[in-house]
Design a protein that fits this description.
alpha/beta; 21% strand
Length: 197
């Protein structure tokens, strides 16, 4: 995919603030600090379009990035950050689920897990929720460069057992592993001719 333009259009704290454009949207879902922003920046060949931080809970709103004026990447708040007050955690959860269930522009979701630890209980809960709501998704297993090849294969196979047949892509933002595979999976949903760079 050749990226011609990428820009943050809005950060929404409630559905009324979501963009009104009728363009396909790709949602990025995952635990706090699992690397959602790094995946977005890496796929878009950008350094700091999506804000990355070592501090969990940094993304507190839904961020909409317009790509090539033709589709959106949507960065959702991370779940599972214990130091955030419970009432705030619940408000994020409600906002995320209202977006995922009610957003007609949502084309596909990417559930991001850490390849070093595999899907956590919270990841599995979110995966099951996506399945129960019949929402299209696939899984990206990040930080693949941190594992030897055999361990990475085992990690992906382990995650695959929970994915309900959905693809699991080993991904490294540093080594560009999995980029072409992710774009090929996104292509049918964003209805664009693939042009891998």
């Amino acid at each position: 995919m050749k990226i011609l333009s990428a820009e943050l259009v809005c950060s929404a704290a409630q559905p009324a603030q979501f963009p009104h454009e009728n363009l396909p949207e790709v949602a990025f879902i995952g635990r706090s600090n699992v690397g959602k922003s790094s995946v977005i920046n890496s796929l878009l060949v950008q350094r700091r379009l999506a804000y990355t931080s070592s501090t969990p809970g940094r993304t507190q709103q839904i961020n909409f990035f317009k790509i090539n004026q033709k589709f959106f990447f949507v960065d959702l708040p991370g779940y599972g950050y214990a130091r955030v007050p419970q009432v705030l955690q619940q408000s994020w959860k409600d906002l995320i689920e209202r977006y995922l269930k009610g957003r007609k522009q949502l084309a596909v979701s990417i559930l991001i897990v850490d390849s070093r630890i595999g899907p956590t209980e919270q990841d599995l809960h979110k995966l099951k929720w996506l399945q129960q709501n019949s929402l299209p998704f696939f899984v990206v297993s990040t930080k693949a460069d941190k594992l030897p090849r055999i361990e990475l294969q085992r990690s992906v196979q382990h995650t695959q057992r929970f994915s309900g047949g959905k693809p699991v892509v080993a991904f490294s933002a540093i080594k560009k592993l999995g980029h072409n595979r992710v774009w090929s999976l996104l292509h049918p949903h964003i209805k664009m001719t693939p042009s891998h760079s």
